[in-house]
Design brief:
This protein is α+β, with helices and mostly antiparallel strands and 430 residues long. The protein has 15 helices and 13 strands. Helix content is 41%, strand content 20%. The protein folds into two domains: 172 residues, no CATH class; 228 residues, Transposase Inhibitor Protein From Tn5, Chain A, domain 1 (Alpha-Beta Complex). The longest helix is centred in the last third of the chain and has 25 residues. Helix 1 runs parallel beside helix 15 and helix 8 runs parallel beside helix 9. Strands 2, 3, 4, 5, 6, 7, 8, 9, 10 and 11 form a ten-stranded mixed beta sheet that branches.
């Protein structure tokens, strides 16, 4: 049938794009985020308007709903479901003033609470897993502006900022440090690892993996002090001297492991005793991998405090290779939460913006495991659980969200699953 004209008429009904927002409100309340953040929020300047707690919640739900920038709050606040959940929402200008009002101490406290909230969400989903595998990595955040504080060229000639990130094997983010663009990747890694591992329960087996930028005494000694195992890639100038010193005693064995796109690799172990190493162990193990190249060999080395009687070389390599998943989590964070761009001129304000985004990222990561055992990306989460077209009915101080029955079946399944997991977590903790 051909229509000559398409007419648009108004109706006296209220609709929303976020019929599944209730599941995130359940998660927000279950995690008791308000209690975690209440004491660190800056004092309110005026006695009227939206509270500081609800400002934080509005920013959290802005990230969850796919808002790319602060300006998106100006249209989100007209969505009844979003406005109801955030107790009125707020304008973008108010949000800008809010994130600029955080002191340095408040930023530090917010960082600590992110670690505690991430641990809580992991324990809700995986209460029986005692393996805590932390991967740490940095990433550039390219910017096009000129006046933003901290913009610099990095070693790859990228203009922008840089961030240091830490994730466990499930993709939960435990820390985020936004810094000037030319900052060396390994700067501050020791302190970040210490702050995270010190909050991890002692009953867990703690392990750290990272690339060559983090293979230094600060990181190693931090792992020793926190009782953690580590596997760190070594720089060429460091492992070359080890190879030279052990060239007459090192024994190479063939392996089926494919490395450097070659299936003709060999493995070997060596001892490395750097000066300044703390703890009872004064020497470390180096696992070498080599593959034929032209007339010689191409080498790779992993420094670890996991010795031969604990793990074979293959296990060390397999554990280290799990670090690559960290890059997928960074990518998800950049595209799912739009961490490619930051809204403020001040670096500290952008730090706060990023830290709030991390809480939202972890909340979405939690709901991803309700959909799939391995988790899924934010695009799929939003399509299945959040962006559900619905009708809003308000009557007798009660808000009813009406959604399609097929979509409601999926939503109800995930909602009940989350509710039971949270109930079990608090039942065990008491």
């Amino acid at each position: 049938m051909n229509f000559k004209n398409i007419l648009i008429e108004s109706i006296n009904k209220d609709f929303s794009s976020f019929g599944g927002i209730k599941i995130y409100n359940l998660l927000y309340n279950s995690l008791k985020i308000r209690n975690h953040t209440k004491e660190l929020l800056p004092a309110k300047k005026l006695n009227y308007g939206i509270s500081q707690d609800d400002k934080l919640k509005s920013l959290l739900f802005k990230f969850i709903c796919g808002g790319d920038c602060l300006d998106d709050l100006d249209w989100l606040r007209f969505d009844t479901a979003f406005k109801t959940v955030t107790n009125g929402a707020m304008a973008s200008t108010t949000a800008g003033e809010f994130i600029r009002s955080f002191s340095n101490r408040s930023i530090e406290l917010l960082q600590e609470q992110i670690t505690l909230l991430a641990l809580k969400q992991r324990q809700i989903l995986f209460p029986d897993d005692k393996e805590f595998d932390l991967a740490i990595d940095s990433t550039p955040h390219l910017q096009t502006g000129l006046k933003m504080e901290g913009l610099q060229y990095d070693y790859k000639n990228n203009w922008g900022l840089n961030s240091l990130n830490a994730y466990d094997q499930y993709g939960f983010s435990y820390s985020f440090d936004l810094r000037p663009g030319a900052t060396y990747s390994g700067n501050g890694a020791g302190a970040m690892i210490r702050n995270i591992l010190s909050k991890v329960p002692g009953s867990m087996n703690k392990k750290v993996r990272a690339d060559s930028a983090y293979c230094n005494l600060e990181v190693m000694n931090t792992c020793f002090s926190q009782g953690a195992k580590f596997a760190l890639a070594m720089k060429k100038n460091v492992y070359n001297s080890i190879l030279e010193n052990n060239k007459n005693t090192i024994k190479w064995k063939k392996t089926k492991i494919s490395f450097f796109e070659s299936d003709q690799c060999e493995l070997a172990d060596a001892i490395y005793a750097p000066e300044g190493l703390q703890g009872n162990t004064k020497a470390l193990r180096v696992v070498f991998i080599r593959a034929p190249k032209d007339e010689g060999h191409k080498y790779y080395a992993i420094c670890t405090n996991i010795f031969q009687h604990e793990w074979k070389a293959k296990q060390v390599i397999k554990f280290y290779r799990g670090r690559a998943n960290c890059e997928n989590f960074i990518k998800e964070q950049k595209y799912g939460m739009d961490f490619k761009h930051f809204p403020c001129k001040k670096l500290d304000a952008n730090r706060v913006y990023g830290l709030i985004g991390i809480i939202a990222y972890n909340m979405m990561r939690t709901t991803s495991f309700l959909i799939s055992k391995k988790g899924c990306l934010s695009k799929k989460i939003r399509k299945l659980l959040l962006e559900i077209p619905c009708q809003i009915v308000s009557h007798a101080r009660r808000l009813t969200i009406k959604i399609n029955w097929k979509r409601k079946e999926v939503f109800d399944c995930c909602y009940e699953k989350l509710r039971k997991l949270v109930a079990r977590f608090y039942e065990k903790s008491t």
